[in-house]
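testing teh design pipeline on a random one, pls ignore if ur not involved
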């Protein structure tokens, strides 16, 4: 007799559970916040995407893209340490404008790349010291830094804007 009375209660509980599970979909709700479970982590933008955003926000004239060969010869960076990169340099040779963003393979690679980029900064300051005092000052105050596995240099009067764009796209 007790069994017959508990069957409808069990069936009602199962039906309610099925209805709640079926309505939940991919998002789970907690109070007023909804979380999408399909997104597991925030991905960083690629160096190419960051460079594109920089070029949309900052006026850079007479620039040419940096190649793998440039990364090796001008910076002395081992391409085995590089996952991806993007950068440009003044094509006229009259200005010191230059930027490079590298995603390194790991933290050790990022440290090696940072050392090479700092050497590049010193080289560019020495080149500009006697013939381009304004360019010298720009390179001297420009950031050469690392954020996670991203290493960057921004030799530009707009370096602060460039850093902000990178920070918005690399977590």
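output:
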């Amino acid at each position: 007799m007790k069994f017959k009375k508990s069957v409808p209660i069990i069936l009602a509980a199962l039906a309610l559970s099925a209805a709640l599970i079926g309505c939940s979909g991919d998002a789970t709700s907690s109070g007023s916040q909804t979380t999408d479970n399909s997104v597991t982590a925030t991905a960083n933008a690629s160096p190419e995407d960051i460079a594109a955003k920089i070029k949309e926000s900052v006026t850079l004239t007479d620039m040419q893209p940096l190649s793998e060969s440039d990364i090796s010869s001008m910076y002395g960076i081992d391409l085995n340490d590089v996952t991806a990169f993007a950068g440009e340099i003044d094509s006229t040779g009259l200005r010191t404008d230059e930027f490079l963003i590298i995603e390194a393979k790991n933290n050790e690679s990022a440290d090696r790349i940072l050392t090479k980029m700092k050497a590049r900064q010193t080289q560019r300051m020495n080149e500009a010291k006697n013939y381009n005092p304004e360019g010298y000052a720009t390179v001297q105050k420009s950031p050469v830094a690392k954020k996670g596995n991203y290493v960057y240099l921004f030799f530009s009067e707009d370096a602060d804007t460039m850093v902000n764009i990178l920070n918005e796209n690399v977590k």
